[in-house]
Amino acid sequence: MLKLVIGNKNYSSWSMRPWLALRANDIPFEEIFVPLYTDQADKDRILSFSKAGKVPALIDGDVTVWDSLAIIEYLAEKFPEAKLWPSDRAARAHARAISAEMHSGFVPLRSECGMNLHRPIRAVALSDDARANVARIEEIWADCHARYGKQGPFLFGTFSGADAMYAPVVHRFRTYAIPVKAEAQHYVDAMMQLPAFQQWTSDGLAETLRIERFEDA
To answer: Which residues are in the GST N-terminal domain (predicted)?
Structure first.
């Protein structure tokens, strides 16, 4: 059985992404939780799974894949029936492009609005760069809806790897009371109704471990 090493569900947006890709597609896997930012023993435990020293990490027999997007790519190849990428070549290229943009971009929004499901919902003053990130994400969501909305409520109709990559942003928008334009609100609603998204949220809210460095925002 596949094994997925993850961090705290309350905080670890990168862990959430491949976890959703697996759970939303009913792909069996063993979940291995290692608390983040604790003691050396936990750091060593993560290193025992991946020399990168970070979560998530996917273990498939003698194959280990680290990095959220790389894991999603691996799952798409191993489980083609899950259709983690659209079958149409142009749509597939589009899905990969916006996933890569999420993977490497939106740094101001990440740094100013860290993922913390326990955080009381309230707005913060965003920088111009973070507001530009929000606008770009709304643009992506609205554009996908205009192109593929007739096929379903997610970015490319049915749930895909791109949705797994953007799912944590839905939590950031909710937690930091960031208003979403009507053209993009449909996507927030669809994601929050996804059973796998709801399960991750419920599990994260049930956690009692706190990382103080993430509790100040």
So the answer is: 2-83
Nearest 10 degrees: CA dihedral of 27, 14, 57, 208?
Answer: -90
Q: What is the DSSP string of 116-127?
A: -TTSPP------
6-16 residues labelled b (16+ CB within 10 A) or e (exposed): bbbbbbbbbbb
* Residue 136 identity: R
Q: Over the stretch 126-176, which tens digit does the pLDDT of each residue have?
A: 999 999 999 999 999 999 999 999 999 999 999 999 999 999 999 999 999
98, 145 in Cβ contact below 8 A?
no
Three state DSSP letters for 167-189: HHHHHHHHHCCCCCCHHHHHHHH
Q: How far is CA 89 from CA 92, 93, 96, 153, in A?
A: 5, 6, 11, 20
H or E segment at 44?
helix 40-49
**Each residue's pLDDT tens digit, 28-53:** 999 999 988 777 777 888 888 888 88
Tell me if the bond preceding 35 is cis, omega within 30° of 0: no
Read off the amino acid at residue 127.
S
How far is 180 from 195, CA to CA, in rounded Å?
22
Residue 201's CB is within 10 A of a number of other CB atoms, namely: 19
Q: Which two tokens stand for residue 116?
A: 């913390």
pTM greater than 0.90: yes
Which residues are paired to 157 by β-bridges?
Answer: 154
Of 102, 114, 215, which Cα lies nearest the Cα of 172? 114
Contact (Cβ atoms closer than 8 angstroms) between residue 74 and residue 85: no
